[in-house]
Amino acid sequence: MKNLGTTGLKVLKISHILFAIMWIGGVMALVSLQLGLTPDTKETMHTAAIAHLIVDEFFLIPGGVGIVITAIVYGAFTRWGFFKQKWLIVKWILTILLIIIGAGYMGVTIKENVVYAQNMLSENISADVYWDNVYHVATAGILQLFGFVYIVVISVIKPWKKKNSTQPDEN
Q: Which pLDDT belongs to residue 169?
């Protein structure tokens, strides 16, 4: 296994942190938009749904993909590996769960809400489904934020770290 040099490790760490900021910041922005905006017309609901989609497509998706890619590089090209430490295994499990919540539920619901809001413009349908989707995605986003906080905490504290580990204290 080829290890990254000092410069490569620094670039990897910077990239990993920036993607984490994108992903976490995107979820924070999405939840803030969903709970902070209360559009009162079908037109503004449609505009808000598009804003949610923009946050999803330009922050959440690239941030999540970037985190996974940099984590794979960390596992493959550093001494940390993928499963050498219990705290890394927990991070992988949580990251996969957060991706499932994000891509499998939040992203799908956000896209459905754009279509539903578009249909509200041309049809006389209730906004109940729109608001249910907004609150469900906001709730899932809050759950994601708790997961992110836990991942950050275990990344810094590194609980369950093996004694006599030759791993550096650096992430």
A: 52
- Cα Dmax for the chain: 67
Q: How far apart are CA 70 and CA 160, in angstroms?
A: 23
Beta-carbon count within 10 A of 29 CB = 19
Mean pLDDT, residues 131-155: 96
What is the reported pTM? 0.86
Q: Which residues contact 47 (CB under 8 A, 6 or more apart)?
A: 39
Which CA distances in Å does 101 have to 15, 119, 162?
23, 26, 30
Q: Distance from first CA to last CA of the chain, Å, rounded?
A: 18
Q: Which amino acid belongs to residue 70?
A: T
Contact 95, 82 (CB under 8 A): no
At residue 82, the pLDDT reads: 86
Averaged pLDDT for residues 16-39: 95
The alpha carbon torsion through 83, 85, 90, 91 (nearest 10 deg) reads: -80
What does the angle CA 99 – CA 118 – CA 50 come to, to the nearest 5 degrees?
45
User: Does the pLDDT of residue 22 top 70, yes or no?
Assistant: yes
